[in-house]
Amino acid sequence: MCTLEKRGDIFYLTLTGSDEHRLSPTLIASLLAALEEAASQSSRGSVLVTTSAGKFFSNGFDLAWAQSAGSPAGAQQRLHQMVDAFQPVVAALISLPMPTIAAVQGHAAAAGLLLALSHDYVLMRRDRGVLYMSEVDIGLTLPEYFGAVVRAKVSSAAARRDVLLRGRKVRGEEAVAMGIVEGAHDDEDGVAGAGGQLAEELAGRRWDGEVYAEIRKGLYPELCGVLGLATKAIATPRL
């Protein structure tokens, strides 16, 4: 599950517990509800920081739950259910009316990595944890919106190739060099501190959240098309 806590202008969305934070239908629904709550309570200067407890940021979809369906057809149906349920979470992050930061305290794999990449900024540890898109290794194709997120957020074609087609497990300093994350920090406290500091800096700009969201959507027209997100013009100048 997850919790949402507001401290001043900053929302802290935390994946709780010490497990792998597998994206089951229950956790996906909890994330979506938290994002909707943050959006409803947002005001000028709001920022979201997403983090986790334990060794994992998120190890992707709950494949054990899918396989527990008892048949290949049932497992595939459950996997499709999670893929479909997770797309609105990505859409909610891309359209959230505030800056977003993923403070990745541990491993982020497959849909867990996609969750991180759906934020504006990604910070991670250099001493522990990897970013990993496991689909090529386990024999799963990418949903359309997965590819669209990676194309939007990872600018280097070589980095996209290594992450998606080689299944490369990327650590902190490598992720910075590849342009996947904003920064790598020494330990859990370092990531949390950097995330909080960046959040305070962004909150201090006191941006209009709706305008911010529309500018963000304008940066990623292909991704917004895949997600079904429309853009609109807003004029609320502060002169």
From TrEMBL:
GO biological process, one term: fatty acid catabolic process
Pathway participation: Lipid metabolism; fatty acid beta-oxidation
Keyword Nucleotide-binding: no
Chemical reaction(s) catalysed: a (3E)-enoyl-CoA = a 4-saturated (2E)-enoyl-CoA; a (3Z)-enoyl-CoA = a 4-saturated (2E)-enoyl-CoA
GO MF annotations in UniProt: delta(3)-delta(2)-enoyl-CoA isomerase activity
InterPro entries: ClpP/crotonase-like_dom_sf, Enoyl-CoA_hydra/iso
Keywords recorded for this protein, A-Z: Fatty acid metabolism, Lipid metabolism
E.C. code: 5.3.3.8
Claim: Transcription is one of the keywords in the record: no
Top-level division of the source organism's lineage: Eukaryota
Family: Belongs to the enoyl-CoA hydratase/isomerase family.
The protein's name in its UniProt record: Delta(3)-Delta(2)-enoyl-CoA isomerase
Native source organism of the sequence: Eucalyptus globulus
